[in-house]
Amino acid sequence: MSGTGLLGCLPEDHLTGHFLGRAMSPDGPCIISIREGRISDLTEIVSTMSGAIERCVFDGGRDLGPVQDGLPAGWHLLSPVDLQCIKACGVTFALSAIERVIEERARGDATKATEIRKQLEQRVGAGIRSVVPGSSQAADLKAALIEDGMWSQYLEVAIGPDAEVFSKAPVLSTVGHGAEIGIRSDSAWNNPEPEIVLIVDSRGNVLGATLGNDVNLRDFEGRSALLLSKAKDNTASCAIGPFIRLFDDTYTMDDVRNANVDLTIRGPDGFVLNGSNDMGQISRDPLDLVAQNLSEHHYPDGFVLFCGTLFAPTQDRNVPGSGFTHQIGDQVAISSDRLGCLENTVTTSRDAPPWEIGIAEFMRGLSARGLIDRI
Q: Any keyword Hydrolase (predicted)?
C-alpha cells in the first residue's frame, strides 16, 4: 500500500487521534500504532491485538516513519482484530426492522418487496419509530400487531426487551481494508451493511471503535431466520477496518452515538449507489448492546461488536421492482469522518482467497518468531 493509500483510509483528523491496526509484514502479522502522524510497530512488545487491548499496550515499539510515507515495502493492512470473538447485533434500527419483515414476508423473493414495503410502512412505520424497545408502549404495539396478524420475529427483537445477538464470523477470519469481500455464489439478493464496530475487552470495557461491513444475504435470511448463520458466516464475508480508533479526549462514545457512516458502491456496470447509516437513529444505545452481548457470557480475549445498520437499499439496479443486489467487481467504500474509510471489492465467497490462517497456524507463526510469550 502506498503512502497515499494509507492517508486515504485514515480520517482527516488522524493527527489528533490514536489508532491501532494490524499489518502483514514479510515476517508475519504485526501490531501497529499511529499517533501524532507516525507509525510504530508494537509487535516486539505485544504480538496480538487482543493482548494490546487487554493490557492497554498502545505505545512504544519500533518507529516505522511518518504516515505520509506509508507502510514499509512489502507490508499491507490486515483486519485490525485477531483473537477477539466477532459478534453482531441486528435489527437495531426501525427501518432495518421493517426491511427484515419484508424479507420474511417475501420469502426471499426481491420482486415482491415493493408492495410489501408499502403495506408495512402504512401500518407500522410511524409506530415502530416512536417506541423504546422493551417499554410498555412497545408491548402495546406488539399486542396490536399480534391482533392484526402482523407480528414477526424481527419485530420481536426490534421493539422487545432482548436484542438480536449473533456470532458473525470465526476468530481470525475477518478481512481488512483493500481485501476482497465475499458473498455466496448462490445468492441473488444481497447488500453490504455499513456499521460501526465496538472494541471491547474481557471486562466489558469499550476501548474504541472501527468500521465494518456485515454482508447481508436477503434471499437466504428471508426464506428462514434459521438460515442466519449460512447467510452471515462465509469466506471473506466480514470486513473490519481500516484501524481501531481508541477512545480518548478527542474521540468518545458520544462520537459513536452521533456518527454518520456513509456508503458508496461503484459497480463495473457504471451503477452508483450512495447510502448512510445515521447512528443517531439507533433504537438501542450502543452500551446496551454491549451489555446484552455480555449477558451471561465471558470473553477472555475480548470481543468486537457490530452495532447494526440503518442502511437497507431499495434502489433498483437491474429489473424494475427487484431492488439492489451486488455484482462481482463492485467497489464498496464505507466511511465515517472520525474513523476513516474501509474499502473492499466484491467477489464470491467461493472465489475469494481461502481462509488458511486459523488459530493453530497463527500460534505456530508467533512461536517461530519467538513471540508466543507476548500474546
A: yes
Q: Could you give phi then psi for residue 3, rounded to 5 degrees?
A: -60, -40
How far, in Å, CA of 189 to CA of 182, rounded?
14
Alpha-carbon distance of 133 to 283, in angstroms, equals: 7
Per residue in 131-177, pLDDT (tens digit) is: 788 888 778 777 777 776 767 777 788 888 899 999 999 999 999 99
- Look at residue 2 in the predicted model and tell me its pLDDT: 36
What domains does the chain contain, in order, with CATH numbers? Answer: 3-81+361-374 (no CATH), 85-91+164-358 (3.90.850.10), 95-159 (no CATH)
CB contact set of 138 (below 8 Å; sequence gap of 6+): 131, 132, 159, 160
Closest C-alpha among 327, 190, 341, 333 to residue 271? 327
Over the stretch 246-299, which tens digit does the pLDDT of each residue have?
999 999 999 999 999 999 999 999 999 999 999 998 989 999 999 999 999 999
Tell me the C-alpha distance between 37 and 50, whole Å: 23
The answer to whether residues 206 and 290 touch, using CB atoms and an 8 Å cutoff, is yes
Phi, psi for residue 139 in degrees, rounded to 5: -65, -40
- Count the neighbouring beta carbons within 10 Å of the beta carbon of residue 252: 12
Parallel/antiparallel/unpaired status of strands 303-306 and 85-90: parallel
The pair phi, psi for residue 92, each rounded to 5°, is: -95, 0
Helix/strand/coil percentages in the chain, nearest 5: 30, 30, 40
pTM: 0.90
DSSP-derived letter for residue 280 is: G
Q: Where do we find the cell 424481527?
A: 154
If one counts every other C-beta atom within 10 angstroms of the C-beta of residue 318, the result is 12
State the residue for C-alpha cell 465467497: 349
Burial class of residue 175 (count of CB atoms within 10 Å of its CB; 0-12, 13-18, 19+) = buried
Of 155, 259, 263, the closest CA to residue 198 belongs to 259
Mean pLDDT of 9-24: 97
Identify the helix (H) or strand (E) that includes residue 77.
Answer: strand 76-78
- Name which of 95-109, 184-198, 291-305 the model is least confident about: 95-109
